Amino acid sequence: MTLLKMKFNLKRILILFISLFVIGSVAIETSVHTVSGDSLHLKDYTNEITNLNEPYKFIKTDYFKPITHLTFTNKPVTRYYQLTLKKVKMSPDGFERTVWSVNGQHPGPLIQANKGDRLVINVTNHFDDPASIHWHGMFQHGTNWYDGVPGQTQCPIPNDVSLVYNFSTTDQHGTYWYHSHFFAQYVDGLRGSLVVHDPDDPYLNQYDFEYLVVLSDWHHNTTGVLLPLQDAPGYSGFRPIPDSPLISGLGRYNCTAAPPGSKCNSDQPLPVYNVKKNKKYRFRIINSAADGVFVFSIDQHKLKVIESEGIYLKPTIIKKLPVAVGQRYSVIVDANQPVGNYFIRGTLDKRCTPNNNATINFNSAIDWDGLGILHYEGAKNSPNSKEFDDDFTPCRDLDKKHLKPIKPITKYDGHVTDFVNITITFGADKNQRLEALINNSSFVPQLNDPTINKITRDIAAKDLPKDQNSVILNHNGGIAEIYVKNDNNADHPFHMHGHVFAIMFVGEKGDVPDESKYNKKNPVVRDTVTIPGNGFLVIRFITDNPGVWAFHCHIEWHVEIGMVMGIIELQDTLKKETIPEDVVALCLEHDLQKRTTRKMLNAIVINEIRSDD
Ligand SMILES: [Cu+2]
After folding, report:
1. Distance of CA 182 to CAs 91, 178, 224, 585, 593, Å?
2. Does domain 416-579 correspond to CATH entry 2.60.40.420?
């Protein structure tokens, strides 16, 4: 379908929709949304698009050059970006395959803003599949419909259609990322970095340059091939084993293990980060993998941890940094060693990846030790540096002693208004297909009619379908507490949209939460946390952000079998909001309601084969 025709159809269907549901005023930009109290913190931040004619900037990012800082402005500004989604052939680890690229690269380009700036991002989908982008860690105060989650906050963007995401960074700052939230599409490449700079950053003067490190696991098969294998009746394996770890999109593979006829090159150069002797470098580290704990380290260089997921930390020194899927850290590295080349290690921790003979790609030729080089200017030797010993507990988050906020965050120590109890298990559906269960219910996204649409049509949260795994929170400014019992062996890195949360308690098997042990005075605050296998987690967060917010395991293979909840927060405020018409129109255009989720998956597989032919 041509773009023009698509536009025409959108318009026609939109008129139909207006007559059906009575939509409010027509406006491309989002206005400020009034919420009782001052919970949105929008004061002093930009809420208007200043110049609608501003061209969207199509950029590419060289991940091996330091970030060029944005100039801090007196007043917040609006920054325009173009992200074009297109499948391209690439060889990240030497093995050529189709990659779901952003602006022709993987990982996608860096989106940058300063604190308070507005981001206006035009996403143009030329994947031949539907798509979406979630801005991982951004609160989306007042713009829930730009959170990018098909089935919860929007319908997916059809092929050859653009959607403008438009949100303020309000008072957020730090290291974030973006990725598709449509099926497992991010695992095939749709992921990139997002950084919000802060003029008030207490560490701003403690480093000279800044680097980004985007870590990911990589599969030679697309998820269109892998997911149906995991979905087969009676599947008794674990999550698919990857083929290589990637450091900012680069890895290595032993091509003798590649299938005959594939294009593969074993002599991939290692990724190189250049440094100058006696300069200091901030490394922003993002685990954007489908699965798996990464351990980041640089031989002979210790790491000063200063940020986790937008929270400034009391600085502590570590040798190795474990990063679970979805988590981010900033560390400062002092290039104070003799001029030379040193290994950077982005190791996928094999100890945290279960395997058996039934597991997809169980006999992978993967080299778990992802390598890069820290290259001092003038260094000639080839690296032969020695790896540090472990100084962390494997398969667990970095110890809380390294995660103390720079000032204790005390607002979570108060009257809890809502208690939520959840139990995570695995089971099988009636066709013996593996399911993840939260309180005995496996989540299924309603791609054609997302929850936010239902709420704004005045459907009460309590009347949502059971498989939406809804958590209903109605106390404006209240404190919600979620108590999780993990009734299975696997560790699950859980991520919450629209919020950070305070970690009251993390318990191993048998270590039942006890309120007297809760960390109320100086809790770790972040947006992604690992729940130990057969263990426990208790978190608290402030219910001040009207919206439908996913709370889910970030292991993509678990998401796809239903390990997702929907937090329905302040529905009375949310239902009065007007979803922008271009967001609503996505639902009408694609008409996904005629297909079930599983069939939808098949459609993607077919599509993929067609485009690869
Ligand atoms: Cu999980």
Report:
1. 23, 12, 12, 17, 15
2. yes
